[in-house]
Amino acid sequence: MLTSLYFKYKWYLIFTVPMSLLLGMASMSVIAIISDALGNGLDNMQYGPVVFFCAIGLLFLLGLGNELLRARLSARVSYDIQQRMIARVSATSLEQVERVGLPKVIATMTQDLTVAVRYFHVLPELCVNIAIVLCGVAFMAYLSLPVLGLVAACLLLTGVVITLLVLGTHKDRVSIREQLDTVMGHYQSLVKGAKELTLNRHRQRYFTGRLTGILADIRGRTQRVLSLLAWMESWGQLAIFAILGTIIFLASHLVPVSGEIIVGFVITLLFLLEPIEVIISHLDELVQAKVAFDKIDKLKLAEAIPQGQTDLPLLTHSQGKTLSLHDVVYRYEREDDGQVKAFQLGPLSLQLQPGEVTLIIGGNGTGKSTLLKVICGLYPPQSGQLQIAGQPVCAQNMAAFRDHFSLIMPDFCLFEDVLDANGQPCEDAEVAAMLTQLKLDKVVSCKNAVLDKLELSQGQRKRLALLLMYFESRPIVLLDEWAADQDPTFKRIFYKEILPSLKAQGKTVVVVSHDERYFDSADKVYKLDEGRLQPMLTKSVINADQSLSQHTA
Ligand SMILES: Nc1ncnc2c1ncn2[C@@H]1O[C@H](COP(=O)(O)OP(=O)(O)OP(=O)(O)O)[C@@H](O)[C@H]1O
Description:
The chain is 63% helix and 13% strand. It is built from 15 helices and twelve strands. The chain has helices spanning 2-8, 10-40, 49-91, 94-100, 102-143, 145-192, 194-199, 201-254, 259-298, 368-375, 398-402, 428-437, 458-472, 488-504, 539-552, and strands spanning 323-336, 339-352, 357-362, 383-388, 391-392, 405-408, 446-447, 450-451, 476-480, 508-512, 524-529, 532-536. The strands form three sheets. It has a six-stranded mixed sheet, with helices on both faces. Strands 2-1-4-5 form a four-stranded antiparallel sheet, covered by helices on one side. Helix 3 packs antiparallel against helix 5 (102-143) and helix 5 packs antiparallel against helix 9 (259-298). The longest helix has 54 residues, at 201-254. The mean pLDDT is 84. Bound molecules: adenosine-5'-triphosphate. The site of adenosine-5'-triphosphate has 12 residues, from strand 1 and helix 10. It holds the Pfam family ABC_tran. Keywords: ATP-binding, Membrane, Nucleotide-binding, Transmembrane, Transmembrane helix.
């Protein structure tokens, strides 16, 4: 990401270099005038007050221009980095987000972005201060090359020590940042597991003990980093004062030099004290920002939403087009203590028709949820093929393919905005009517297409998810154990009214369920066993079979 930002903002950065040099030269010209006045006395000085005020006027304009440029660059980069991150997280496959894990993504979105944004704020200021120091060195070279030789030797030594100290902080900075991912995960558990931890003090002690152990390690490393920074700053100050002492007390004994030149050196070095301190502190910020950029890159987020997506025809009942899976395989693989643990779904083939309700049953961990994610393209199959209306689904048309689906999983996320099929806000009156049908009108209302309350019971939240799905109006509906949290009355309404209504609208409906009582609501029932799919006979088929055989007898 850092390289692409350099590239995008190259003109700002390139422009910063001459601006910084001009600013450095203007600063030095002011110092030269002051040193001339102090060294030669007011009667013998070469430059008058007019030159001085012109020089500080130029310094003001260049300084202001540079700060305005920096503010513009910094604000733009900050906006750009955050927008890129949102686009990249949205474009990243579910598989990759699951592989990385929520704590790492959150740590990066909150911690790394803030630090990374500072990089382009600090870089121009670093440039300016380096330019000032270089101009200061050039001015000192003009005053006396032999004395500069003394100064340069001390400055070089200081620079080497400071660089070594900065590099010394890098390892600890990386380690602190790595541990922050774990801390973020623990913070989540602390909030999510508040009930369990409050009820079990042993677990709470064990848990907080582990967390504080990590925090103690971070504390130790932070202390080491801050100590190194303190060394750096003190060393920088000491070096400047040592150089001043060398010039004042030793220079005239070592090389032939006048009092005015010594005054010039002293004033320049005192002036350079602040730029040198700024450079030292900014070097540390750059190290931190580099660690943050590396961390962002490590998430392996997608670069952007893939371009050149082709559209697929939406499935409708009248077209009678089918969604089919042909010898599809999806495999999870995880390494545990050097052993590869895997779960494989398929190879399986399945045909889903508009206006049909298909029920998937099976024990825990047999692959039902995985199958739904494969059907809707959240997990692209590793082999085999998905087809819709006879058209193969591939990477290029995957986004258009996913537009066919509404999915409600047990860990669904409820959004407060009610949007229609085109992503536009829905009419409040229509939403209110639907809330009444779902028996939610007493607890939730909708204003400007925004639901006013999401803190509800799990069964009620699932009804709201159904409401959002209804307005999205997608042709294929996938419901994973939706009815599991409903009371008996609403369970019956779901199987006997809602599913038939979806069917009548020509939707392709796939329901994962353990509700044996309602298997006859489905047109087809399949059982998953260890990732293998087997068709089952439904009651309605059995009844139809029986009545047919009675009729023929
Ligand atoms: N993200 C993942 N990474 C690795 N393995 C996973 C992942 N998600 C699920 N699995 C494994 O895949 C298998 C099938 O999981 P899945 O969630 O599809 O089962 P399920 O039939 O829906 O179970 P349940 O009825 O309990 O919801 C399980 O053995 C599970 O451990």
